[in-house]
Specification:
The protein is of the alpha/beta class. The chain has a single domain, classed as Rossmann fold. 55% of the residues lie in helices and 13% in strands. A hairpin with a 2-residue loop joins β5 and β6. The chain is globular and about 40 Å long.
Amino acid sequence: MNDKYFLDTNILIYSVDNLEMIKKNRSLALVNEGVISRKGVISWQVLQEFLNVATRKIETAFKPQDLNEYMKKILNPLCEIYPDINLYQDALEIKISTNYSFYDSLILASAIKAECTILYSEDFQAGQIINGVKVVNPFID
């Protein structure tokens, strides 16, 4: 992969959850490649959503000390986008043009701000291109 790519929260969750091993393996490969190549990106929003789910909703929830270590090794190197007024304005513009929810629009705005060419997610219409970012569902062929 030569281009930067954005990882939606569901990709991070699948990468640590053992319920769906096919999704776990594909997600784990994307996360690991993103950290190693420095081409994977998440935003503060994805970080917060992941921390919330990882402590209570996955099969084997993280203990706080383990999650802190995961944050240092994986989440921090991936996290590149933090909020500012322009990001919120961009998200509102995307919401208007796509009719996505505000939070999905914020994910797209973050991917655009990070200059990613791909957004990996299963929550958007696969194949759609929004402001130069192609939505790819990594779980479908």
